[in-house]
Structures are given as structure tokens and as C-alpha cells.
């Protein structure tokens, strides 16, 4: 496809800003990054964050607050695995939880043997778990999720209403998704985002899911832009992007556009006066 040589324009209300985040370091990443076969180990089932991973969460949280991003994000979407939900609540959750009967915490204390205090659900965007943005499914125990009722106990204020099955019916011990299937699922997720009313959304997900999904984008751009979109994410990396609705999939109306002429009525072209004479 021919690459445009200049900037392009698109209506703001046909766009969404998404802040993509890969989860912080999980216990499976320590050995798995050195030896891919280590991801097969059953002890890495639903791997939680390491202590270094929590330090990465704290660092990203400071950045999100320093740049004001925490005030703009309307919704946080997370994959329903421990390491992504820990990252989501650690980065975007409220400040120090106090035991109140009328407010559930986003995360109870010491989830995943983390020695972390409970995290508040006050003064932060809602956090929702969605199956479509899970990691490459199948074979690797670290990518298998727990029963939803177990997660309800660990992450009481996360919204699990989008998840239909109590058990993990997507992960198969002997069948792994192809890269094409991950990309297809990723595109379904991106299309689902357009059904949301929110225009600025954070997504906390996984390296493989991001790699294969984002590879579908940027083919019409300069190669350096394509690389900005598609290069592999580091643990706890955040990358902000804008997606546009080219096919009128979304139904959002503009909140900032203004119709102009008052009283209402047909305008004349700018180079024609009220009497119909051309202005020189």
C-alpha cells in the first residue's frame, strides 16, 4: 500500500485513545525468558508477579500519576489472570485501602504471596476483566486461569460480568492457538472496544497477545511507525495509541463539535457574499 507523504486528519469522535500495558514481571518470566520450555512447568499455573514485578508496578504508577494519565482514563480492561490483574490494580487502583463495610477493595492483602497491602477501589477508574485479551491460549500452565469465584475472593471490586464461564473453557492442555488465531481474537477485542462508550481506555494484557494483535496494524505507515506499533513490549511497558473508526462501527457523537451559524440556516460559501456576489 502506498504510504502517505503528509499528515492526515480524522474526526476526534471517531477515535479512541488506548493505553496498552504489558503485565509486570511474573514468576514464570524469570526462567522462561532464558528457556522457553520452562513455560511448560505446572508450578507456573496462573503465575503471579515477582517482587521485581511489583517494583515495576510502583514505577509505572508513579509515571501515570506524574503525567496526569490517571485522571483521564475512564476504564481499565484487564486479562483475567493474576499477573495482569495485579498489574492493573497496582498501577491504576486507588490509594491505601481502609477496611470499610461499604467499599470493596480491588485486591485483598497478600495476593500471590506478594506481602502487598490491600488496594482501594476509591477514586480510580472501574476495572473490568475480559477474556478476549488473554495471552496465547493453551499448553502453557502459566496462561491458564483460575475459577472466577477464586478471583472474586482475591480481587473483589474487579468487574467479571463480561466473563461467561466459571471455569476456564478456553485453555487446552494439548492444543495451542496459532498465531493467526491470536491475531483474529485480538481484532475481535479491538472491535469490541468500539461498543464501549469510553474514549480513553487502559488495557493490561500480555506480550504474545499484543505482538500478534498489533502486527495487524500500521501496514499503511512509514516502517518506523509500524515498528513503534508492533515491537515487542517489555514487562510493565505502557504504550499510548489512537485507534480510528474508519467503518462507522462506533456510534459516539462528538462532545466538542459546534454547528456554527445562529440562527440556523444555509451558509453561503466563504468566497460569496450575502447577495451572491463573489468576494475578491
TrEMBL record:
Family recorded in the similarity comment: Belongs to the phosphoglycerate mutase family.
Stored InterPro entries: His_Pase_superF_clade-1, His_PPase_superfam, PGM_Phosphatase
GO cellular component, one term: cytoplasm
Protein name: Phosphoglycerate mutase-like protein 1
Cited PANTHER family: BROAD-SPECIFICITY PHOSPHATASE YOR283W-RELATED (PTHR48100), HISTIDINE PHOSPHATASE FAMILY PROTEIN-RELATED (PTHR48100:SF1)
Molecular-function GO term, any one: phosphatase activity
Span list, region Disordered: 253-280
Pfam families in the cross-refs: His_Phos_1
Job of this protein: May play a role in carbohydrates metabolism.
